[in-house]
Amino acid sequence: MTDHSTADPAGAIDYIAVEESPRFRELKKTQRSFIFPLAAFFLIWYFVYVLLAAFATDFMSQRVWGDITVGLLMGLGQFVTTFAITMGYVAFANRKLDPIATEVREELEKAEAGA
Fold first, then answer.
1. Whole-model pTM?
2. Which of 29, 1, 47, 24 is CA-nearest to residue 100?
3. Which of 3, 37, 10, 27 has its CA nearest to residue 102?
4. What CA–CA distances, in Å, run from 29 to 23, 24, 69, 87?
5. 66 near 59, Cβ under 8 Å?
6. Where do runs of H (alpha helix) occur along the chain?
7. Which of 8, 68, 70, 80 has the maximum number of C-beta atoms within 10 A of its C-beta?
8. What is the mean pLDDT of residues 80-96?
9. Which residues, 6+ apart, have CB-to-CB distance to 108 below 8 Å?
């Protein structure tokens, strides 16, 4: 394994070394552990909705209340899910990702200032 310093003598930051650092790897792992399961959940939910709309029209056209149908509620549920995932990600990023990203950024700024 090559020993990379954060900044070379010319003052340029070695971004490969930053990418290989334990904190940056932790940042990527933490982000991916949140994003991949939620993306899979949303894609499955979306495709279930599309497939039901295409192949289960009797089910989707069932009236729930007045002119409100199961399909309409599921369609609106897509928007609700999108906003919920977005709000959840923002809260997760503020709580888990931002502190690690701040540490990495501060380390880079120190290396750049010291060069």
1. 0.76
2. 24
3. 27
4. 10, 9, 41, 20
5. no
6. 15-20, 22-55, 57-60, 70-92, 98-114
7. 70
8. 97
9. 6, 13, 18
